[in-house]
Amino acid sequence: MAFINDNYLELQDSYLFSTIAKKVNEFVAEHPEKKLIRMGIGDVTRPLAPAVLAAMHTAVDEMGQKETFKGYGPEQGYDFLHQAVQSYYEQMGVSLETDEIFISDGAKSDVGNITDIFGNENIIMVPDPVYPVYVDTNIMSGREIIYLDSNANNDFLPLPPTDLEVIPDIIYLCSPNNPTGSVYNREQLTAWVKYALDHNSIILYDAAYECFIHDASLPRSIFEIEGAKECAIEFCSLSKTAGFTGTRCGYTVVPKSLKALNSDGDEIVLNKLWLRRQTTKFNGVPYIIQRGAAAVFTAEGQSQIKENIKYYMENARIIAAAMKAKGIEYYGGDNSPYIWLKCPNNMKSWDFFDYLLNEIAVVGTPGAGFGNNGEGFFRLTAFGDRNATIEAMERFKSLNF
Ligand code: MLT
Questions:
Q1: Residue 261: which domain range?
Q2: Considering the entire predicted model, what is its pTM?
Q3: Is the beta carbon of 145 within 6 A of some atom in ligand 1?
C-alpha cells in the first residue's frame, strides 16, 4: 500500500472558506425564507470591464481561425501580457525585465506553489493573523513556522522582530493586508527589506490588493523599496483588481537578482528555478484569458476597472460608517477592501459569526480562522453589491449591542 504525506494530517479538517460555505449552506437549507447577505469570502460582484470582454471576444474568434489558432502557449505567459505588466510596474517607478514576470492563474496558486523551490529545512515566518494559504501550504511540506504577533498594539502592522532566537529564512508579508486591511507605509516596508537583506531572508510579498491603495504615499509594490529585488518575490492577481476571481489570472515577479543557497552553499538564481517549476508543472493561463488580462492594463481598461474599485471603496466607506455609528473598533477599509472589526461585548469570532448569521442573515469571516490573534475579531468585505451592503449595515445597526 502507498504512503500518504503525513503532513496533511496536521492540517485543520477543512480550509477556512470551505467551513464557512458549509455552515452557510446549512443555514440556507434550514431558513429558505431569509435573505442572506454574503460578506464573507472576498469574492467580487461587479462584472468584467467592457475592454476585457471585447479583448476576450476577439481572442475567441482568433481561436476559431486556422491562421490565428493557438495551441500550447508559453507556460510562463505570453510576451504581450509580460509587456503590459511591465509597463504597469513602470508607472510605479519599478523597472522589470519581461522574463522576471510569470503569468499564473492567480496569487493563491503561486503563493502555494512557490514552496516547491525552497528546501523543507527553511524556517518560515508568518504574521498572525494571516491569509491561511501561507500557513497551510508550509504545513503540507512539514516546515517549521514561527508566528509574528500582529495585533492592535502594532496596528496590525508588525515590524521585524528584534528578540527572536532563530532567524526566519522566508517571511510572508501581505499589504494591503488580508484579513486586517492594514497597509505598510514606505518606512515600515523599508525596515522589512533591510531586515531581509541583513539576515539573508527572502520576503514573499502578497500584493493582491495593491489596486485599492489610493494614498499616493503608500507603496503598492515591494519593489518600490530599494534593495527589494535582492530579497523579495511579489505575487499579484487580477482577481480583485479586475474581477477575475472566476476568470483566473495573476502574475508573480521573481527578480533575476534574487538568490538562495543550495546544500553545497552555492548561490542559485531563483528565477531559473521558478521557470523550471512552472514549465514542468503548469500549462499556463489560456490565451483568451491572457488577452482579457492584457486589456486590463490599457488606458481604457484602467479607467473601467477604476470605476469598479471606486464602487467597492464606497461599500467600504458604508461599512466603516456603520462601525463608527455602533462605536465598534475597526481597522482597514481605507486603502483596502476589508474591514477588520473587534467583536462587540468581547464575543469570540465564531460566536459572532453565528450571531450575525442567525440574527440578521449576514455572513462574515471569523478572525480566528486567520490565526490566534484573530480571535475576537471579524472580517467584512466590501466586494458586495451596493444595495446589499447598505441593507446589511442597516440590519447591523439594528442589533442590540
Ligand atoms: C479571501 O476572502 O480571503 C480571499 O477571497 C481568498 C482568496 O483570495 O483566495
A1: 50-297
A2: 0.97
A3: no
